[in-house]
Amino acid sequence: MANTASGVHEHGEFWRPPLETHPEVVSTLEAESCARCGTELVAGSRFCHICGKARKPQLVVHRIQWARVLNIHRIGEHMGLPLASLAALAAGVICALAAIGTGLIYTTSTALDWQAVQVWRIEWLLGAVVALLAGILLKAASGPKDKA
Question: How far is residue 139's CA from residue 76's CA, in Å, rounded to a whole number?
């Protein structure tokens, strides 16, 4: 029996905890069997538990958890902003980028076109200013209150 699983110590254990799978993926998978001995393989195993033959790597679907990637609350704590102020800051930055992008995207050939582009820029910049001021006011409103 020791001869059949000779490569186990080189590669680590023959069994691992099951990989994270999703219900839609699990329902389409069939039980996989060993190519050498035909035994049904244990879910998540790296080797056959009977003959010790290495298993082919499986496709694993990973979902990006945006809550972990962005972690908005940690960003807000790091910047010293409440959630509402952080949202207003994001809206202001998006409006400012849109004002810059308006000038890059639209080309003008007449004075009337130029004026229209400038009006759009002004509107985006006003949106940015309003969002940033709202963020400042929301931070001041949710700040610590002195008990006198």
Answer: 11
Among 139, 137, 101, CA closest to 121: 101
Query: In this model, does residue 76 exceed pLDDT 60?
Result: yes
Please report, for the chain, the start and end positions of each structural domain, with discontinuous segments joined by +.
1-63, 71-142
Place of tokens 């400012």: 96
Say which amino acid occupies 26. Answer: V
Joined tokens for residue 145: 């209150």
Three-class secondary structure of residue 111 per DSSP:
helix
Q: Per-residue pLDDT tens for 121-146?
A: 999 999 999 999 999 998 888 776 54
List, in sequence order, the alpha helices (H) in the chain. Answer: 8-11, 23-28, 66-70, 72-79, 83-105, 111-142
pLDDT value of position 59: 62
* CA contacts within 13 A on the Cβ side of 133: 6
